[in-house]
Amino acid sequence: MPPKDVTIKLHGREYKIRSPFEEEYTQKLARYCDGLMKNIGAATASTDYLGLSVLTLLQVAHNYLQQVELSQKPNEGAEIEIARLIALLDQMEKDVAVVNDAPFAEPPPPPTHNANTL
Length: 118
Description:
By secondary structure, the chain is mainly alpha-helical. The protein has helices at residues 23-44, 49-72, 76-101; strands at residues 4-10, 13-19. 3% of the residues are buried.
C-alpha cells in the first residue's frame, strides 16, 4: 500500500505526516501517543515540548519492551494447567490399559419386562 498523507494531532499540535498505514490506524497510534504525552506532561508539570516528546518516546519503547518480555516468559498459570492436563491424560492412558488387559466379559442381558408387573 502506498504511503498516505495524514494529519495527526499530538499534545495540541497538528502534524501532516506520510504514513504507510491506513489513516484510521495512524490516528489510533497518534491518539495513543497523545494520551501518553498528556499523562507525562501532567505528571511532570513540564511545558518543554521536546522534553515531553523524548519522555513519550521512552515510554513507548518501555511499553513495547515489556510486551516483548512478557510474550517470552512462560505463563505460570498456563504451565500449571498444562501439567495438570498431562497428568490427567497419563492417568487415563493407564486406566485404558487396565481395561484393555482385563478379560472380556459379556454384558448382562437387558432386564425383561413382564406385562403383568407394570
